[in-house]
Amino acid sequence: MQVSGNYIIFIILCLTAVFLLVAFYIVIQVITYAQKKKKYEAEKSQMNRLFEAQLIQTKLEVQEQTLQNFSADLHDNIGQLLSLTNVTLASVNVKDENKATVKIQSAQELIKRAIKEIRILSKIYQGENLIVNGIADAITQEVQWFQRNDYFKVEFKNNLPENFNLLQPYANLFVYRLVQECLSNIIKHADATEIFIFLGVKDGCFMLEISDNGKGFEYDEPNFRSNGMGIFNMQQRISLLNGTMNIITHQGMGTHIIFNIPCE
């Protein structure tokens, strides 16, 4: 059977068209991939810059909060103990041995209390260095400092595995700052007397829950204006860790904040 020249030309043209279409498709896919890769690199670079900025801000805030705690303790607690020690020693009458002995013993007890307070304060003053011992230990030290204030009843429940730490770089520092921020908000805004803090792991996520029995507030997330409560900063930091933050609160009903951060 003889094949006409026109048929051969038609077949060649069809094959050429198919080849060109395949080549065009490959070129389009390569260009699309390159654009997506460029966009991904730009987003990754932007995320890294945002992360670095948040990290620096977090470090500064941790240091500032730590210095505020340090200053308050020096003035309100250790300063008072040393003043009482000074007054006690100044009133010692060496001629009355019995009373002098009692007052000297009282002064010794005051000094021991001051030393104990300084040791506790030195742990808090470590700031971000405290994270080296694990997030649970860092939060425990913060809670212990808080529990010394008789105005608040603080319940702390730690269900984390021993030596637990989040895997993401500086995630533990971010979480430590979240705790500081929440406690600071309770002091400034909540008018609370009871605080509950829970640490645990559930479904592959680190869980941090902080609640109080304070006055609460009306929270509408899309339209909320924090008035200095730092909620936007907390949302940013939790999103950098691919986590979530859920605020449950109503006027007169206290506040319950739940953080979930992937840890696997």
Keywords:
alpha+beta; 264 residues; 5-stranded mixed beta sheet; 5 helices; Heat Shock Protein 90
Q: Can you tell me about this structure?
A:
The chain is an alpha+beta fold. The chain has a domain at 130-264: 2-Layer Sandwich (Heat Shock Protein 90), CATH 3.30.565. Helix content is 60%, strand content 14%. Strands 1-2-3-5-4 form a 5-stranded mixed sheet, with helices on one face. It is elongated and about 135 Å long. The relative contact order is 0.09. The mean pLDDT is 78.
Task: Please write out the topology.
Blueprint: H1 5-90, H2 97-125, H3 135-147, E1 153-158, H4 171-190, E2 194-202, E3 205-212, H5 231-240, E4 244-249, E5 255-262
Parallel strand pairs: 1-2
Antiparallel strand pairs: 2-3, 3-5, 4-5
Helix pairs in contact: 1-2, 1-4, 2-3, 3-4
